[in-house]
Every structure is written in C-alpha cells, then in structure tokens.
Design a protein that fits this description.
- By secondary structure, the chain is an alpha/beta fold.
- It folds into three domains: about 150 residues, 3-Layer(aba) Sandwich (Rossmann fold); about 120 residues, Nitrogenase molybdenum iron protein domain (Rossmann fold); about 100 residues, Rossmann fold (3-Layer(aba) Sandwich), CATH 3.40.50.
- Helices cover about 45% and strands about 15% of the residues.
- The chain contains 17 helices and 14 strands.
- A six-stranded parallel β-sheet has the order 1-12-11-10-13-14, with helices on both faces. Strands 3-2-4-5 form a four-stranded parallel β-sheet, sandwiched between helices.
C-alpha cells in the first residue's frame, strides 16, 4: 500500500473564489446516467421543449427507443398562469403510469421553467405518491441549470432519496453513495467481499427493492466528489462518513479501500493480499501511459467537481504538474483527503469568472487544458491542447481496472498533437 503524501499537501493553500460569468451543462444531463442505473425508475422532467431537446441530444435517443425519462412540457399557457399546471401534471403522470406499469420510482425533476413559475413539485410528489402508492413512489428534486453544474443533478437526486431509505438495525453496515457503471460497481463489490465486507448497500440501488437501510451504525463512503448535499442528507439520517480520497488510479483506489477496511477492522495482511495483484495491474497500466504525461502541465477549468481528485491522480501517479485547478464548488469535508495528497504548487480556484480564467489559461499555456465543450474548440483554435471534461463523467474511470483508461483519456490529446505536428512537418 502506498503512503500518503507527507505534510498537509494543499490543505492550507489559499483558494481564489470567483463569482462571475460561468459556462456549465444543465443539471438535467445527469438523468442520462441515472436512468440507466435505476432500472425501475422514470425521470419526468417538468420543463420546456428546450429541456426535451437537451435530453434527447445528450442521450442520443433513437426514434424507436423508449428510455426511462421524458418531459412534461410546460406550454405558454402554463408559463402565463392561464391553466392549472398541477391538473395537467396529474393527467400526464396517470397516462405515463398506465402505459408503463413497470415504473416503481417516479422522479419529478424540476427545471428552470418550472422553478421560475414556482411550480410546487414537492407538494405534487406528495399528492401523487398518495394517489399511486404504494406500488409507485414519487419523489421530486431539482435538475435546474440555474447556478449549478451538471453533476449536481445526481447530488440533488440522491439527497432526495436519502429521507425515504428504510431504517437500519443495530448491525454495522456500509453504504456506497454515487452512481457507477454496473461493471465498475461489480468490481468494487468483489473487492469489498474479498475483504470480508459483505453487508454493502448502494445509493442509488439498481431497483427500489435494493434501497440501502440507514442508521447510527451505518458507515458511508462516496465514490463521487460532487455529492455534497447527499453527504449532508446521509449524516442527518445518522450515518457516519468515512473520509477517503476518491478512488481514481492505483493510489486513490488503495487508500479508499483501506479507509473502509480500517473502519471495519480488516487486518492489514488480508488487505494487502486482496489488493496487491489489482493494484500492481493498475500501476502497470498507468505506467504504460506515463511517458506521454510525465513532466507535462495541466490547467483545469471548473466543470464537474471531479477536478481536484483528478489533479491528485495526474500529479501523484502520472508525473504531471498542475498549474491551476478550478472547481465549481470545493467541499472541504469531502475533499480533505485529496487536498492532503496533492503536492503544493497549483492555484486553487472555486467558482468561475470565465473571462478571467480564460486570461489565466492563455497566459499559462499549459500542455493540456481540461475544460467544457463550449471552451474546447475556441481554445484549440488558439493552439491549446484540450480535454473535454464531460468525457471524464461518462467514461468508466473508477477503481483499479479502469486506472489505465483514466490515464489514457489525458494522454490521447497529447499524442494527437504530436501526430498532427509530425504530419504537418512531413
């Protein structure tokens, strides 16, 4: 097992807090991975036709496919207050549930339009749960893109689920919070099982029947750094957090697993026996990409809240140098282990003033700039090498078996630049 970085790392580094123009995807985007994860759930966005177009474009929905999400369209008469939106919503939900009897969890997802007209979706969820329960549980949360970043849609969804989870008994249990692809989740559960930790609940569960119980003897660990509201909601239910770096790369995964193993009394020799082989595989996979990354500089624009753990991975395990690490929100209670493992040097920025950050990125001329889609093409035109931040959310990157793939995502644009220069020269 690797040792943590000595000293406080970036724990005491001053944070530049910016509040200005920002560019982010809408929080509704998170439905794209949540609806795949929760197999008996349906996400009904109460919004405009723009919301519907966004979801269809982001998901690449085929005309013959029937996904587990849709949009209850707010027409001009709804926005003008000329019709009763609650009556229209009730009728839409009734039609949906009659057509889709497999739905066990119905999420009413607030959007910018529904929040602007103050449509009370919390009251609607209570009313519809009483009407269609107990077979269907109706929950509401906000996916609005006003003053949020797109990953916060998952956070508000899981935080809304937390009060509905069943009470746990006296037996100690573990809950892992954060949506992961099924194949990655299965790898994680096998590792925990090999460590002797069998009573593992998942939030979100794949079905409503798989909801994890919570109580004072429940410990929970996060797999995503953007779950600030979920973190607070689980604590309010009495569960106790396990502080750990995010499980990115060989080091991050090992330390995440060790934090849990230590909490559940797993002996060190058993831990080493279980993690030794997959950790070495991960280290070899990362080393295969390290030649493209070592010694290179990286600049992070704020986008997904993954920035700090990813910077820790790139600097500590891949030999890169971080110039600036911007993140939409820096949740110190969650990110303390990653901050401690991050070597001093980079500027830390919270929030966004996009024009000022663009000026700093142009001045830094980092070897790699990680940013949103809206900035990538203009910066590429100016000669900077960019990486789409959203790809790091949609690609499996957690735990040992994906460590090489994670490094490859950053190495690929750097190799592309070398090839393009070679072809131009020849």
């Amino acid at each position: 097992m690797s040792a943590a970085a000595p000293g406080p790392g970036c724990t005491r580094t001053p944070v530049l807090r910016e509040r200005g123009q920002h560019e982010v995807f809408c929080g509704l985007t998170s439905i794209i991975w949540l609806h795949r994860k929760m197999q008996d759930a349906f996400f009904l966005v109460v919004g405009s036709r723009t919301c519907a177009h966004l979801l269809q474009s982001a998901a690449g929905v085929m005309i013959f496919a029937e996904p587990r999400f849709g949009t209850a369209i707010l027409e001009e008469s709804d926005l003008a207050g000329l019709t009763d939106s609650h009556d229209a919503l009730d009728a839409e939900v009734a039609r949906l549930l009659a057509r889709r009897p497999d739905i066990r969890q119905l999420f009413l997802v607030g959007s910018c339009p529904s929040e602007v007209i103050k449509l009370d979706l919390a009251r609607a969820a209570e009313r519809l749960s009483a009407l269609h329960g107990p077979h269907v549980q109706v929950i509401n949360y906000s996916g609005s893109g006003i003053e949020t970043t797109f990953t916060q849609g998952e956070d508000t969804c899981l935080a809304a689920l937390a009060p509905t989870l069943p009470e746990a008994g006296d037996t100690p249990g573990l809950v892992i919070a954060g949506a992961l692809p099924d194949v990655v989740e299965d790898q994680m559960l096998r590792l925990l099982s090999d460590l002797g930790i069998e009573d593992v609940g998942l939030l979100p569960g794949r079905t409503r029947d798989n909801r994890p119980p919570l109580g004072p003897n429940t410990r929970f660990a996060l797999t995503q750094p953007f779950l600030g509201e979920t973190h607070g909601a689980l604590i309010r239910r009495g569960a106790q957090p396990i502080a750990a770096p995010m499980p990115f790369g060989a080091d991050g995964t090992t330390e995440w697993l060790w934090a849990i193993a230590r909490e559940f009394g797993v002996p060190r020799d058993r831990f080493e026996a279980v993690t030794d082989a997959p950790r070495k595989r991960a280290e070899r996979a990362i080393a295969a990409r390290a030649d493209d990354l070592a010694g290179r500089s990286v600049f992070f624009f704020p986008d997904s809240q993954l920035e700090l753990p990813l910077a820790r991975f790139l600097t500590r395990e891949c030999g890169m140098r971080a110039v600036e690490i911007g993140t939409p929100y820096l949740h110190r209670a969650i990110l303390a282990p990653d901050l401690a493992a991050l070597a001093p040097g980079p500027r830390l920025a919270e929030g966004q003033d996009v024009e000022r950050q663009l000026d700093r990125a142009r001045a830094a001329r980092a070897d790699l700039t990680v940013c949103g889609l809206g900035l990538a093409n203009p910066l590429e035109a100016e000669g900077l090498v960019t990486k789409w931040a959203i790809e790091l959310v949609f690609t499996p990157v957690h735990f040992y078996e994906q460590a090489g793939d994670l490094a490859e995502l950053f190495a690929r644009p750097l190799r592309r630049k070398v090839r393009l220069r070679f072809e131009a020269a020849s």
